[in-house]
Structures are given as structure tokens and as C-alpha cells.
Amino acid sequence: MIEICCGSYEDGMNAYYGGAKRIELNSALYLGGLSPSVSTLKLLKAKTDLKIICMVRPRAAGFCYDENEFIQMKEEAKDFLENGADGIAFGFLTKEFLVDKERTSEFVKLIHSYQKEAVFHRAFDITPNLEESIQTLISLHVDRVLTSGGEVNAIAGKDTIKSLEEHFGSQIEILAGCGINANNALEFKNYTHVKQIHSSCKSYQHDPTTFNTKVSYAYNNDMYEVVDQKHVKALININYE
Length: 241
Fold this sequence. Notes:
The chain has helices at 9-17, 38-47, 67-82, 101-113, 130-139, 158-168, 185-192, 229-236; strands at 2-6, 22-25, 51-55, 87-90, 117-120, 144-147, 173-177, 196-199, 202-206, 223-227. With 241 residues, it is of the alpha/beta class. Helix 3 packs parallel to helix 4. It starts with a strand and ends in a 5-residue tail after the last helix.
């Protein structure tokens, strides 16, 4: 399974035309991915047969949320699930960097009440002990965990990902992500034996109205990232057997 990380309706359509079957739908990927709009989800559900996992993340920075943020996140999850989302990607940590068991359990129960998939995102990667954390997720009935093996990208974390797949892959789905592309995916898959890969397949486009001599709205000069159909096709068309 190749999952494409998308930040817009355009990204989702590019992933679809590139041959993807599942996407993680976000907004603001330059912030690590925030919750998308319901309208983006509805458009993609109307126009494609993609399996869509919606991110629920209300802000940038970390994953220790106050009560108001948690209330918002539950309502966003319900909106997505009631409008066709096939699953929810989320992550809750305590101030001690541990998996927040209470809130994770509440989210899993909500998602499963719609018979959809509960996916713990890369908040997992900054917990202090990945083996203990994944055992916690398993005990809370999380369906899948997205991970780079606790490293800056999945290539650097390949040994840890291999170990997680070997020891826990029969109990929870391991989705390896960050830094995987058509150039390294086959070698990575053969080394780690993971069955699922998450990739952004991105390229960049320019918007000439990003700044003038006085005012700037830039975060990467005048460029913004988009899913590239060619990169999606290249990743999916690899013979992984």
C-alpha cells in the first residue's frame, strides 16, 4: 500500500490520477499538516474512489492539547467521519512525551464507532521509547501507526522500523513515512519488510504574487509544494514483489 500525503483538493486529484488508492488529507503541510476542510474531503469523495484518511490537528508545534483544542478536535473528527472519511490520523501526547492514553482511547472509540480506521501519526516518533509506545497503541486498539523510526526520516530510522515491523507488525499496521520516494522505496521495503509506505511525492510551483518590495507572504521564496503525478506514478509502478 502506497499512501500519498496531500495538502489540498489539487493534491488529492494529482495523487488519484497518478494511481494512488489511499491518501492522508491535510492542510498546511509546511507546518507538518493540519486539519483539512470538510469541503475538500467532500470534493475528493465525489470525484474519486480514493480511501481518505483525514488529519485532525488544530495547530502547529507539538501534540499536548488543552481542553478547548481537544473539544475542537473531536468535532472535526466527527465532521470528517460523517462526510465520508475512511479514517482519522491523530496524535495525543502528555507533557512527559508519553502517549496520552485517555484521549487516544476516546478518539479510537469514536473512530471505531463509525467502523473507520484509527491512525496514530508521527507524534509517535518523539516519544522516548518507541517499543513501549507502540505497545500502548496496540493495547488501545489503534489500527495503524505512521513512523520514521524516531529519526529525522524513515531512511535514517530504517533499523528501528525493521524491528517494529518484525516484533509488532502482526498486531498493528506499520506505515513508514518521511523521505521515501521512487529512488529508495524498493530498497527500503526489502530491508524493513514493511507493507505500507507514506510519501509526499512533491514538487514545487511558483506564485508570482507572493511578495513585492514591501510585503511578503513567503515561506519558501515564491514556491509552494504540490503532489506531482509523475512522482506518484513512479513510486506506485515499482515492482515490489
